[in-house]
Amino acid sequence: MNRTLKEELIMSSFKTIDGRGFDIHIDGGACLTLEYLNHVIVHGVPIHDCIFTGPAMVRSNSTHFGQRGITEGDAVNIFGSQDIWVDHCYFANCADGLVDVIMGSTDITISNNYFTDHDKVMLLCAHPNDTMDGNLRVTVAFNHFGANLTQRLPRCRHGFFHVVNNDYASWGIYAVGGSEAPTIKSEGNHYSAPNVSTSKEVTMRIDDGGSDFGSANTWNWTSSGDQFLNGAFFTPSDSTNSSLWNSTIYDTQATSFVALPATMVGNVRADDASTLSW
Question: What is the pLDDT of residues 89-117, one digit of tens each?
Fold first, then answer.
């Protein structure tokens, strides 16, 4: 039996949402908010078609309800939280982002998910002046970025990001982008560029009004062991002329595990896909 959750789901810490063995979708409402939480796992749940809602009275437990503001239609919004794992989920077609990690969140893993049919996919830090995200650490691993995705695979600000062993079937504008001097280690990914001559570059350095965009070529962005197909290419930072460049920062802050060779990414994704039920 298919069961659908359409209202906003507000969680508490030390919880797991595990959809294995059930045909349960989170869709058609405000979807999933993780606000000021720690140690939460979201596993094996299709989350899609989320919409703008609110303000409204929302029940947070059996004895309490209160006023909530407008939700922007993210599939998963991780707000001021840490030690969060989003794994083996399906994401598509929401009003705003699919996964947002914002407002001082850190130690987040987004892995083994299937993303499709969306514009702005994954936002890691929301605004140029959100300096509380200076220690943001996110691992984006073993995901499949499928058809009809445009940008933000992911889009990074301020923090430290390990983008590792993902399968990029295509993208519209760019795959990995950012601003405000993020440290991005792209490792062992499979990048297949779209059949558009102006969209072959994996990376995009974005000018969103931050004070440091003029130094964008000195930010810490590197590619290691990635596989580039159909003309795809990654533009690393200029390590020869950078006051920010620090080669050890990738090992100490932007490495979360030893990557597999990029040639193995397709096999890993095929094995994972057989366990999913969307």
Answer: 999 999 999 999 999 999 999 999 999 99
Report which residue type is found at 26. Answer: I
Give the chain's domain count. Answer: 1
Whether 157 is a known active-site residue: answer no
H/E stretch holding 266 = helix 265-273
Per-residue confidence band for 17, with pLDDT thresholds at 50, 70 and 90:
very high
Which range of residues forms the domain containing residue 98? 2-48+74-273
CA distance 237 to 222: 7
- Please give the helix or strand (H or E) that residue 251 lies within, else none: helix 249-252
Assess if residue 80 is contained within a domain: yes
22: domain CATH number is 2.160.20.10
CA distance from start to end of the chain = 13
**pTM, entire model:** 0.91
Active-site residue among 68, 152, 155, 157?
152
